[in-house]
Amino acid sequence: MKSEIRKSIRKYGIAIMVGAAFLTLSLSLNHFLEAETAAEKVRLLCDGFTIGGTVLVCAGAFVWLHNQGMFHGIGYALSYAVKGLIPGALATDVPERYGDYVERKNEKGPVKGYSFLFVVGGGFFAVAVILLIAFFLL
Q1: What is the DSSP annotation of 117-129?
Q2: Distance from the CA of 133 to the CA of which of 44, 57, 69, 92 falls in 20 to 30 A?
Q3: Considering its fold, how many domains does the chain have in total?
Protein backbone atom coordinates (compact mmCIF):
# COMPACT_ATOMS: atom_id res chain seq x y z
CA MET A 1 0.00 0.00 0.00
CA LYS A 2 2.78 2.42 0.86
CA SER A 3 4.56 1.71 -2.40
CA GLU A 4 1.41 2.65 -4.36
CA ILE A 5 1.14 5.92 -2.44
CA ARG A 6 4.81 6.63 -3.08
CA LYS A 7 4.36 5.96 -6.79
CA SER A 8 1.38 8.30 -6.92
CA ILE A 9 3.22 11.02 -5.03
CA ARG A 10 6.19 10.59 -7.36
CA LYS A 11 4.03 10.81 -10.51
CA TYR A 12 2.15 13.87 -9.30
CA GLY A 13 5.36 15.49 -8.05
CA ILE A 14 7.15 15.01 -11.35
CA ALA A 15 4.14 16.35 -13.27
CA ILE A 16 4.00 19.41 -11.01
CA MET A 17 7.73 19.98 -11.51
CA VAL A 18 7.34 19.75 -15.30
CA GLY A 19 4.49 22.24 -15.20
CA ALA A 20 6.50 24.51 -12.91
CA ALA A 21 9.47 24.27 -15.29
CA PHE A 22 7.31 25.49 -18.18
CA LEU A 23 5.89 28.20 -15.93
CA THR A 24 9.40 29.34 -14.99
CA LEU A 25 10.55 29.22 -18.60
CA SER A 26 7.57 31.30 -19.69
CA LEU A 27 8.14 33.86 -16.94
CA SER A 28 11.84 34.19 -17.69
CA LEU A 29 11.33 34.51 -21.45
CA ASN A 30 8.70 37.22 -20.93
CA HIS A 31 10.87 39.17 -18.46
CA PHE A 32 8.53 38.80 -15.49
CA LEU A 33 10.89 40.58 -13.11
CA GLU A 34 10.90 43.66 -15.33
CA ALA A 35 7.10 43.98 -15.35
CA GLU A 36 6.07 47.31 -13.90
CA THR A 37 2.38 47.01 -13.08
CA ALA A 38 0.54 44.41 -11.05
CA ALA A 39 -1.80 43.75 -13.95
CA GLU A 40 1.12 42.93 -16.21
CA LYS A 41 2.56 40.53 -13.61
CA VAL A 42 -0.78 38.79 -13.17
CA ARG A 43 -1.12 38.45 -16.95
CA LEU A 44 2.33 36.92 -17.25
CA LEU A 45 1.57 34.49 -14.42
CA CYS A 46 -1.71 33.56 -16.12
CA ASP A 47 0.14 32.90 -19.38
CA GLY A 48 2.73 30.75 -17.61
CA PHE A 49 0.17 28.61 -15.81
CA THR A 50 -1.77 28.22 -19.06
CA ILE A 51 1.35 27.00 -20.87
CA GLY A 52 2.20 24.51 -18.11
CA GLY A 53 -1.38 23.20 -18.04
CA THR A 54 -1.51 22.92 -21.81
CA VAL A 55 1.68 20.87 -21.96
CA LEU A 56 0.45 18.44 -19.30
CA VAL A 57 -3.03 18.02 -20.76
CA CYS A 58 -1.59 17.55 -24.26
CA ALA A 59 0.79 14.89 -22.94
CA GLY A 60 -2.16 13.05 -21.41
CA ALA A 61 -4.11 13.38 -24.66
CA PHE A 62 -1.11 12.02 -26.58
CA VAL A 63 -1.02 8.92 -24.35
CA TRP A 64 -4.79 8.47 -24.74
CA LEU A 65 -4.50 8.70 -28.54
CA HIS A 66 -1.66 6.18 -28.45
CA ASN A 67 -3.88 3.79 -26.49
CA GLN A 68 -6.58 4.17 -29.14
CA GLY A 69 -4.11 3.11 -31.86
CA MET A 70 -4.03 6.43 -33.65
CA PHE A 71 -0.31 6.18 -34.38
CA HIS A 72 -0.14 2.61 -35.69
CA GLY A 73 -0.24 3.75 -39.31
CA ILE A 74 2.57 6.23 -38.79
CA GLY A 75 4.70 3.62 -37.02
CA TYR A 76 4.06 1.08 -39.76
CA ALA A 77 5.02 3.56 -42.47
CA LEU A 78 8.16 4.62 -40.60
CA SER A 79 9.23 1.00 -40.14
CA TYR A 80 9.07 0.57 -43.91
CA ALA A 81 10.95 3.82 -44.42
CA VAL A 82 13.74 2.69 -42.12
CA LYS A 83 13.93 -0.70 -43.84
CA GLY A 84 14.05 1.10 -47.19
CA LEU A 85 17.14 3.00 -46.10
CA ILE A 86 19.04 -0.19 -45.29
CA PRO A 87 20.41 -1.71 -48.50
CA GLY A 88 18.82 -5.09 -49.24
CA ALA A 89 16.58 -5.14 -46.15
CA LEU A 90 13.33 -5.09 -48.10
CA ALA A 91 14.57 -7.67 -50.62
CA THR A 92 15.61 -10.28 -48.04
CA ASP A 93 12.99 -9.67 -45.33
CA VAL A 94 9.40 -10.85 -45.67
CA PRO A 95 7.26 -7.72 -45.31
CA GLU A 96 4.99 -7.62 -42.30
CA ARG A 97 1.33 -7.02 -43.06
CA TYR A 98 -0.38 -4.06 -41.41
CA GLY A 99 -2.81 -6.31 -39.53
CA ASP A 100 0.07 -8.32 -38.07
CA TYR A 101 1.84 -5.10 -37.11
CA VAL A 102 -1.25 -3.84 -35.26
CA GLU A 103 -1.69 -7.17 -33.45
CA ARG A 104 1.95 -7.13 -32.38
CA LYS A 105 1.63 -3.59 -31.04
CA ASN A 106 -1.63 -4.38 -29.22
CA GLU A 107 -0.15 -7.41 -27.41
CA LYS A 108 1.44 -5.15 -24.81
CA GLY A 109 -1.89 -3.63 -23.87
CA PRO A 110 -2.74 0.00 -23.27
CA VAL A 111 -0.74 2.36 -21.09
CA LYS A 112 -2.43 2.74 -17.71
CA GLY A 113 -2.18 5.27 -14.92
CA TYR A 114 -1.77 8.49 -16.84
CA SER A 115 -4.82 10.35 -15.54
CA PHE A 116 -2.56 12.33 -13.21
CA LEU A 117 -1.51 14.38 -16.25
CA PHE A 118 -5.09 15.58 -16.69
CA VAL A 119 -5.48 16.26 -12.96
CA VAL A 120 -2.29 18.32 -12.63
CA GLY A 121 -2.88 20.05 -15.96
CA GLY A 122 -6.40 20.90 -14.85
CA GLY A 123 -4.99 22.31 -11.63
CA PHE A 124 -2.67 24.56 -13.59
CA PHE A 125 -5.62 25.66 -15.74
CA ALA A 126 -7.69 26.39 -12.61
CA VAL A 127 -4.95 28.68 -11.27
CA ALA A 128 -4.75 30.33 -14.71
CA VAL A 129 -8.50 31.00 -14.70
CA ILE A 130 -8.28 32.55 -11.22
CA LEU A 131 -5.42 34.75 -12.40
CA LEU A 132 -7.37 35.69 -15.51
CA ILE A 133 -10.30 36.81 -13.38
CA ALA A 134 -7.91 38.76 -11.16
CA PHE A 135 -6.38 40.39 -14.25
CA PHE A 136 -9.74 41.68 -15.44
CA LEU A 137 -10.61 42.93 -11.97
CA LEU A 138 -7.38 44.94 -11.70
Answers
A1: HHHHHHHHHHHHH
A2: 57
A3: 1
